Amino acid sequence: MARLKRPVFLFFTCQDHPFLDVEQLLRGVVEAASLRRVYGLSAAVGGAVPLSEDELQLVLSLPSDDWVDSDDARLEALADRGLVLRKGGDPVDTERRRRDEALAETGWNAYAALFHFLTRWQGVDLRAWAPGDEPVDELPPVRREDLERFVAERGAPPPAFHPREPVGPVTELPLVDGDGAIFDLLPQRKTTRAFDRRRALSTEELSIVLRSVFGVHGSATALPGVVTLKRTSPSGGGLHPVEAYLLVADVDGLEPGLYRYLTEQHALELLEALESAAAARRLGTSFMSGQTYFGSAHVLVLMAARFERNHWKYSGHDKAYPAILMDAAHLSQTLYLVAAELGLGAFVTAAVNTADVDERLGLDGYREGSLAICGFGPPAAESSPFDPTFVPFVPSR
Amino acid sequence: MAYQSEERPSQNVRYAITDSEARDVLDQLAEDGSDLRKRLETEDPAAVLREYNIEITGILTEGVVLPPAEDIRSFIDQYLPPQDMSNNVGYAILYFMLGAMPLVVVDPDGAP
């Protein structure tokens, strides 16, 4: 007899796929039929699990707020696939129960949890699909004919400038440039895809970037223990849930490895030493799904959100998760600007194997989990073949 | 072999197969002399299909004659995306979709 219940964070969807009509197949006829399948989307499993309509009814027959005893082998089979939670000592069952409970305890909005945990990547590496029979270390650039095929496949993109039919008078604005350091700096903001391996990042440069971007510059205590922080970027509710973990490849005075930035002390805590800068770059490239042009950076910042801090205020809130993503985006833009001011290159990417990052950092993914990766370091003298060549643009009149 | 989206599988067939299982079934049916083809034609097809999470009831299951393997291959080519993306088109699509880079191409002289 097993004790079972339905996960709280379980959704269902229905999709159609082309398949063969099996009845006709057995009569020697190839006939296409749409295969309609129901999937259970489980945040605790982190994937879509197909199930039959009978199985759907079985899952729905279970409560999600209480355990029930059952000796139904079909329900046990559903528990094996993660669509039903099962009490017991099996480590997989225990982990699934822990995840479903953690989602509820930490105030996850149901739709945000569905999106976040079903869009995490693990082990994605673009290099695996590179042309040729041999594995590649560096991503080969795409040729013009490849882009032409891509466009042929997809059609032309929507125009860069939104075409609209005027519906009212148009007021031209004065073309004036701002005067001051920030206006000189803004045009220098750019994504760097080639870093200078001949020189290390100095500890001072690292410190300035971290203090300027992720450091705390003020705090306000509303009640004992209820503290709002001030950084140089905005954050939903002033909560600043985004933490900075560093993957250091080449910084003077720091051994390669994974570090945690301790905001309160403005200090770095070594989590895991790595054998060399090359090992750090390999790890970083694998975190970034094989994007080798970013893997050459001196330092990566693995941005991870303390979801539970944001959810303390915004428990179950529809906009909590978008606000967290915006927090990370603001921080990356500030990092770009600070790097530009220091003459460093910078980038940000969301094409990240976040499940791998969480695992390596020991994050549970529910209370705290990774979102995106920024990187910075001295840029190479020559630009990357992946860099676009921009020509100046002046608004047309 | 017209495909109409409004067609639905027979009510006598119930499917609980995953994408990879479905693809595996089709690939085996598209291969002359495959184990699945042999077993469907010589054993109880209901029992064989059940192993792939396809349940059939009330369907003729004796004297099964499968369509030629090449017809199944044509079906796969027509309706299912290629699994092997190790070609330039597939790579380009994945490259642009997966990575964080802008749309940049390199001409044969190596200049972006």
Description:
- The complex is a heterodimer of chains A (397) and B (112).
- Chain A folds into two domains: 2-105, no CATH class; 184-377, NADH Oxidase, CATH 3.40.109.
- Chain A is 31% helix and 23% strand.
- The longest helix of chain A has 23 residues, at 320-342.
- In chain A, helix 8 runs antiparallel to helix 12.
- With 397 residues, chain A is an alpha+beta fold.
- Helices cover 42% and strands 5% of the residues of chain B.
- Chain B has a two-stranded antiparallel ribbon with strand order 1-2.
- Chain B starts with 12 loop residues before the first strand and ends in a 14-residue tail after the last helix.
Write the layout of secondary structure elements.
The complex is a heterodimer of chains A (397) and B (112).
Chain A: E1 2-5, E2 10-20, H1 22-25, E3 32-42, E4 47-51, H2 53-60, E5 68-70, H3 73-80, E6 85-86, H4 91-105, H5 110-118, H6 144-154, H7 181-185, H8 203-213, E7 218-223, E8 226-230, E9 242-248, E10 257-262, E11 267-273, H9 277-287, H10 292-295, E12 299-306, H11 307-313, H12 320-342, E13 345-349, H13 354-361, E14 368-377
Antiparallel strand pairs in A: 1-5, 1-6, 2-3, 3-4, 7-8, 9-10, 9-12, 10-11, 12-14, 13-14
Chain B: E1 13-15, H1 19-29, H2 35-42, H3 45-50, E2 54-56, H4 69-79, H5 88-98
Antiparallel strand pairs in B: 1-2
